[in-house]
Design goal:
The chain is of the alpha/beta class and 269 residues long. Helices cover 42% and strands 13% of the residues. It has 9 helices and 5 strands; from the N terminus they run ααααβββαβαβααα. The protein has a 5-stranded mixed beta sheet with strand order 3-2-1-4-5, sandwiched between helices. α2 (18-36) packs across α3, α2 crosses α4 and α3 (43-52) crosses α4 (59-69). The longest helix has 19 residues, at 18-36. 29% of the residues are buried. Involved in the transposition of the insertion sequence. Residues 89-266 form the Integrase catalytic domain. One of its GO terms (molecular function) is nucleic acid binding. Residues 12-22 have a biased composition (Basic and acidic residues).
């Protein structure tokens, strides 16, 4: 049959090439990383996680093995505009102007905030967040069953309590009526915060906040139904405090988590 003796015995014993053996071991490691991310990581973040553990493999190889194993990350859906503008509100400047790049050592100098909707069987739950633009960390958040200004004030107060920033911090948002209200302005003035708002109907003016909402909906909120508001709130807490801030790798941070990024910056400083 024109088959060499070595090829024959390799076939009957099921011996695999060294590369195939490495591929099988690597696939097991990839699967473990993918499961640890609750099925949210795609090839770039899986590759970064493996590299952090000392495994030197190409990203294309990781992507190929993920396809073979049927593993995929989760991609965000398109979002809808939910801002309710107040035409009678006082005009405020845009102090960010779509420049979301912040010096690594400028943590707690520029924040952004926004509100999103969570659908539960009990009705809507509203989530307001405050994000540090330097580290992408969720520094404050709050949930409620209403859209009053108290919600965004609670998120900002949570951030101020945790971080205690210096006077002069810029807080950027959209032109939603909660963010341009007199009540919100009084809270900001009391803490020496400069308020900034984007243009009407321009979601890209607050792209970092919109990006986080797309991520949490893709990786958590749209993956299962939420029977009650408290159940959704507990899941949001676990996601933000136990995953997003402390463990999830961000491409904009060189695939470090926000907590690891802030630690690396403070060590250098």
């Amino acid at each position: 049959m024109k088959v060499s003796r070595s090829a024959y015995y390799q076939h009957i014993h099921g011996d695999r090439s060294p590369r195939r053996q490495v591929d099988q071991t690597l696939t097991e490691q990839i699967t473990a990383v993918h499961e640890a991310s609750k099925g949210t990581y795609g090839a770039p973040r899986v590759h970064a996680e493996l590299a952090a553990d000392g495994h030197r493999h190409g990203r294309k190889r990781v992507a190929r093995l993920m396809r073979t194993a049927g593993l995929r990350g989760r991609c965000p859906r398109r979002w809808q505009t939910t801002t309710v503008p107040d035409p009678t509100a006082a005009a405020r400047p845009d102090l960010i102007d779509r420049d979301f790049t912040v010096d690594a050592y400028a943590v707690d100098t520029r924040w952004c905030g926004d509100i999103t909707y969570v659908n539960t069987w009990e009705g809507w739950l509203y989530l307001a967040t405050v994000i540090d633009l330097a580290s992408r960390r969720i520094v404050g958040w709050a949930v409620a069953d209403h859209l009053r200004t108290d919600l965004v004030d609670a998120a900002l107060t949570d951030a101020l309590t945790r971080r205690r920033p210096a006077s002069g911090l810029v807080f950027h948002s959209d032109r939603g009526c909660q963010y341009v209200s007199a009540q919100h302005a009084r809270l900001a003035a009391h803490h020496g915060i400069r308020l900034s708002v984007g243009r009407r109907g321009q979601c890209w003016d607050n792209a970092v906040a919109e990006s986080f909402f797309a991520t949490i909906k893709t990786e958590l909120l749209h993956r299962q139904p939420w029977p009650t508001r408290p159940a959704a709130q507990r899941a949001i807490f676990e996601y933000v405090e136990g995953w997003y801030n402390t463990r999830r790798r961000h491409s904009s941070l060189g695939y470090l988590s926000p907590a690891a990024y802030e630690t690396s910056v403070s060590n250098v400083a």
